[in-house]
Amino acid sequence: MPHISYSELKDWSFCAFYHKLTRVDKIEGFAGNTYTAFGTAMHSVCEKKLLKEGGDHEQHFISTFADCISNLPTDVEVDSGLVDQMVGQGKRIIPEIEEALNEYFEEYEVLAVEMPLMEPIEGTEDRVFKGYIDAVVATPDGKVHIFDWKTCSWGWESRKKSDKMVTYQLTLYKHFFSQKMAIDPKDVETHFALLKRTAKKNHVEFFRVTSGPKKTENALKLLSVALYNIKNQRYIKNRLSCTSGYGCKFYKTEHCP
Predict the structure, then answer these.
(1) Tell me: the pLDDT tens digits for 82-141?
(2) Is the pTM of this model over 0.90?
(3) Under DSSP, is residue 153 helix (H, G, I), strand (E, B) or coil?
(4) Which of 134, 118, 114 is nearest to 3 (CA)?
(5) Max Cα–Cα distance, the chain, nearest Å
(6) What sign has the CA pseudo-torsion 72, 76, 81, 85?
(7) Long-range contact list for 64-68, CB < 8 A, 24+ apart?
(8) CA atoms within 13 A on the CB side of 172
(9) pLDDT tens, position by position, 52-96
(10) For the residues 203-221, what does the mean pLDDT come to?
(11) Which one, out of 111, 131, 158, 227, has a CA that is 20 to 30 A from the CA of 165?
(12) Interstrand relation of 204-209 and 3-5 (parallel, antiparallel or unpaired)
C-alpha cells in the first residue's frame, strides 16, 4: 500500500512543489553528504551498543563511515580533512553512549531497535504511515520510551529543541507506535538523543520531547492536509523556502525557474 513517512511530510511542509519534484517526478533531491554519512555510521554503532553486541565498536564506526562515504553520489564533494576530523569526533562520542544511556534512564530494558511502523491513518484508506523508530526501551515505572538519535555539531539551541516540525517526528512516532502496540499514549514518552561532534564535553545528550493530545492533534492535522493536497495533486510553491536555511537545490534551475 502507498505510504507517507515523516521525511516525506517534512518535504511537503518545506515546499509542496519540491515534494512533487522529488517524490512524484522522481528527480533526485538531497542525496546525502559527509555529515549524513557520519550520522549513518554513528546510528549503526548506537544500535550495536543497545543490543549489547560485542566487537570493536570504534573500528566498526570507522569502516562503516568509510563505506558510507564511498557510496555517496560522485558529484558530492568530499573533504578528506573533514572526514579525518569526523573520525576523531566519532571516537570521542562512542565511549559516552552507554554512560549517557545509564545516567538518563538509570535502569532500562531494550525492547526494540529500528522498530518498523506501517500503520493505517485514520480517515485515509489509501495510505499508511511508515517509519522506523531508532530505539524503544522500558523503565521500571511502567513507562515505554522511544527515542531518535541525531548527530549534530555542538548541540541544539532551545528554539530547535521546541521547533514543531522537528518534534512532530516523535509526536507521530508516539501516536502510531501506541496504535501499533495498543498501548495508552500516556504511558509512552519521547526523547531525542544528540550525538555532538564538536562539543567540548558531554558528547551525548538526551532530552525529553512532550507530545500531549493537542500537539498530537496538530501533527495529525498537518498529515491529513498534506495527504489531501498530494492526492489532489496540488503542488503550490513555497517561495519562502527557496533560499531559507540551506535553500532548495532546484531554486533557479530548469526544474523550478
Answers:
(1) 999 999 999 999 999 999 999 999 999 999 999 999 999 999 988 999 999 999 999 999
(2) yes
(3) coil
(4) 118
(5) 57
(6) negative
(7) 64/40, 65/37, 65/38, 65/41, 65/90, 68/32, 68/36, 68/37, 68/38, 68/40, 68/41
(8) 31
(9) 999 999 999 999 999 999 999 988 899 999 999 999 999 999 999
(10) 97
(11) 111
(12) unpaired
Q: What is the pLDDT of residue 46?
A: 98
Residue 253 DSSP class: B
Query: At residue 152, what are phi and psi to the nearest 5 degrees?
Result: -155, 180
How far is the C-alpha of 97 from the C-alpha of 250, rounded, in Å? 38
The answer, yes or no, to whether residue 244 has pLDDT greater than 80, is: no
CA 20 to chain centre: 21
How high is the pLDDT of residue 31? 78
The type of residue at 222 is L
Question: Quick one: DSSP state of residue 240?
Answer: G
Do strands 128-138 and 109-120 pair parallel, antiparallel, or not at all (unpaired)? antiparallel
User: Which CATH code for domain 3-25+96-241?
Assistant: 3.90.320.10
